[in-house]
Amino acid sequence: MSTTTLTSETFEQTVSGDGIVFVDFWAAWCGPCRAFAPVFEDVAARNPDIVFGKVDTEAEQGLAAGFGITSIPTLMVFRDGVLVFSQPGALRAPQLEQLVDGARALDMDDVRRQLAERGASTPHA
User: Fold this and answer.
1) Distance between the two ends of the chain, CA-based, in angstroms?
2) Does 30 participate in catalysis according to the annotation?
3) Any idea where the domains of the chain sit in the sequence?
4) Any residues with CB less than 8 A from the CB of 10 and at least 6 apart, and which?
5) CA distance 115 to 79
6) Catalytic residue among 23, 33, 69, 100
7) Which CDD domains match (predicted)?
8) Quick check: bond before 73 cis, omega within 30?
């Protein structure tokens, strides 16, 4: 399996470490979520060095609420423990691949410097 199921017990440990983590907040009843799922799986299979996690918002309501998820699917990207992207809506494969490339290319020293200048902390549920 290319993706991993994230729960309230595994979420923080998964996103707070080094590396890139893509998180898809979804629900089984959501048509756009079901349409996005094969795209997410396909891109995950082509990028085994990145963690692709899925959060079932029905099973993990507290986790979804903690991140203020009001529209699904919502995609979040963490890099080295920092939330660097969050957007609701299903993406097409080229858009998701572009996001993968962008996450890889980030200068995390610069990202952390900008966060420090704004006085921001790394947002976690």
Assistant:
1) 26
2) yes
3) 4-118
4) none
5) 13
6) 33
7) TRX_family
8) yes
Q: Catalytic pick from 15, 20, 23, 30?
A: 30
Residues in the chain: 125
pLDDT on residue 112: 86
- pLDDT tens per residue, the chain (125 residues)? 589 999 999 999 999 989 999 999 999 999 999 999 999 999 999 999 999 999 999 999 999 999 999 999 999 999 999 999 999 999 999 999 999 999 999 888 888 888 888 875 555 54
Q: Rounded to an integer, what distance in angstroms lies between the CA atom of residue 21 and that of residue 6?
A: 11
CA distance 56 to 3: 13
pTM: 0.90
Round to whole Å and give the CA distance between 96 and 26: 16
State yes or no: is 33 an active-site residue. yes
Position 109, amino acid: D
Domain 4-118 matching CATH 3.40.190.170: the answer reads: no
